[in-house]
Amino acid sequence: MAAEESGGRRGGEELEAAERGPGEAYHMFALMEDLLEKLKLLNYEEEALRRHHLRPLSRHYFALPTNPGEQFYMFCTLAAWLITKAGHPFEQPQEYDDPNATISNILSELRSFGRSVDFPPSKLKAGYGEQACYVLDCLAEEALKHTGFSWKRPVYPTEELEEEAITEDDAELTLNKLEEEIVEDETDNEEDFIDLNVLKAQTYRSDMNESTKQEEILESTTDAAEWNLEVERVLPQLKVTIRTDNKDWRIHVDQMHQHKDGIESALKETKGYLDKLHNEISRTLEKVNSREKYINNQLEHLIQEYRTAQAQLSEAKEKYQQGSGGVTERTRTLSEITEVLEKVKQEMEEKGSSMTDGAPLVKIKQALTKLKQETVQMDIRIGVVEHTLLQSKLKEKSNMTRDMHATMIPEATIGAY
């Protein structure tokens, strides 16, 4: 199901990019490559990735969907690091944090930098796409500004101008040039000199040998076809080529005149076609302009309706953005209320279990029984004490009466005497 949703989302984004323009579908890849270069300038591999044990990014990491959960965590990690790098302290998000709250905090920081956000926050939940690349690219630019980095003009390396390679071509053989070539060959190849005296002696000797022979009628025994084949085989070797001096300015002037004549002849032929093409294009442009005016007049009310609908759409987007911010705050409040409700439910369950439990009642009964037993024992002790007290009082009273009788008897005897 998640794969189908991601596929549908991706198809919708491609359709929307195709509607905006033919090259808009590749804008995300170019933006991702620029983002990667800016992250390398900020040394993100050492400061961000190694600290969280993450792998380096590929050229199209946030442009194509691979693993939405991993991509969203990488997006939040890099966004928090870039915000901190730009001078705004930002707490590093964890894996189990609320994604809506994290995205809302990141977008609020992005707005604080003066960047516009004209897309819903739900676009960032996937962890990839043009919106994710846009947010990270803006944060990377703010981080580069905060660190004092500035783009400079490129410095191109100086290349040495190579001499133009001019091919050797066959030139007409003139007497002066041939003599110069012969002189150069003689100066360059001194080892190949032929002694004229020796040559004359050999020629004289061969003539003498031939004169000694009988004069015979000269008749060729060579076939004409073989002779022609031999001539064709040896003819390229007999061809004289002269290397032209490419540094001579006269040759360059002649070449310039030849090119000029060629350009003028070609211009005469093409000028008529160009004039004809110019007239056709002018007539076509006039037709297009008139047709455009006619279409604008016919579709004026539709254009007005479109502008009105566009204004209503922008207002609805603004209301949606405001509502999405309020939803985030209410979601956080709802989570807090849910936690309090869970605590209250837990306390109610504990009290309910304690009320239905019969153990306290049994303890109360046992305590009452024990109190009754102790009361009986106390009553017995009180009765014993009262009995003892009564006996002591009776004994004391009897002692007092006995003492009184003892004192009264002697007085009676004294009165008798």
Q: Which segments are poorly predicted (pLDDT under 50) over 5 or more consecutive residues?
A: 1-15, 161-175, 186-196, 213-217
The run of helices and strands is HHHHHHHHHHHH
Classify the helix fraction into a percent range.
over 70%
Strand content: under 5%
Total count of strands: 0
Number of helices: 12
Give the radius of gyration. 59 Å
Structure class? mainly alpha
Largest sheet: none
The chain-level mean pLDDT equals: 77
Question: For the terminal residues, how far apart are their CA atoms?
Answer: 138 Å
Report the principal-axis shape: elongated
Description:
The protein is an all-alpha fold. 73% of the residues lie in helices and 0% in strands. Helix 2 packs parallel to helix 6. The chain starts with a helix and ends with a helix.
Short description:
The protein has 417 residues and is mainly α.
Jot down its keywords.
417 residues, cilium, Intra-flagellar_transport_57, single chain, Intraflagellar transport protein 57 homolog, mainly alpha, coiled coil, cell projection
Write the SSE topology.
Elements: H1 2-20, H2 27-41, H3 44-52, H4 68-85, H5 99-112, H6 130-147, H7 175-188, H8 196-212, H9 224-238, H10 249-298, H11 300-356, H12 359-416
